[in-house]
Amino acid sequence: MSSSGHGHTPAAWTGVIISFIGFCVAGAFMVLANVPGFWAGIVLTVLGAVVGGLMRLAGLGSEPKRSAAPAPVAVAQPQEG
Predict the structure, then answer these.
(1) Were 55 and a residue from 9, 11, 38, 45 both cysteine, which residue would form a disulfide, CB within 3.0 to 4.6 Å?
(2) Is 0.85 topped by the overall pTM?
(3) How far is CA 63 from CA 9, 11, 56, 58, 74, in A?
(4) Where is pLDDT greater, at 31 or 63?
């Protein structure tokens, strides 16, 4: 398991579950040669991403990781002499 907790949020789980259901629906209707059902599955897949993003914006996702501040760059001083 990942120790960083990547993706273990309600927003991530909800988005993935909705997208997975859409993927399954699209796959089933593709085998059945049902074009409207296939596109309904594709819409569900995209809807999963939208719902996950909206839930993240609502505060149910993880906070973005901030990278460490870069070390200050030493400025070369002219030497006297």
Answers:
(1) 11
(2) no
(3) 10, 12, 9, 12, 32
(4) 31
